[in-house]
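Data card: per-record layout.
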Amino acid sequence: MGSQCSRRPVLFASIATVQYLFANSVGSLALQADCISMAVDAHSLLGNLFAYCYPEDSRRKRRVELGMSGISHGLLLGFTIQFVLGAISDSQVTHGDASEHERNHMGWVVSFPFYSGFVSFSFHWKRRRDKEEVPPKTSTPAA
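The structure for this 143-residue chain is written out next.
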């Protein structure tokens, strides 16, 4: 469980970063907000994995869990307010030719989830196939 759990925040943050780069390149404020939310979730997951190291009945474990929850909620609230204010100001500006340029890149935003799903499915299929190919362990009788 250890190595799989430690990889999750890294993979989650990597996906959020790549998705944010695509969102930024096409100027999608909604997708940027979603990516920031995913990055906050990755941070929260990392903190909760740190809390997992403490004994179950430990006061320190509860403090770390509640602290990470508070930090996550505060960050999400702050980023949400920031993006709402950005969306309001963006909605009141006419773009002219710039919006036409952004619409031409919308295919990247639409195709990225399909590409991500294909990559995820490929890894899952390979991992499942590798598990099926492993011969079962045979036990030797005790002498």
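Known properties of this structure: Residues 1-91 form one domain. The radius of gyration is 22 Å.

See the next section for split statistics.
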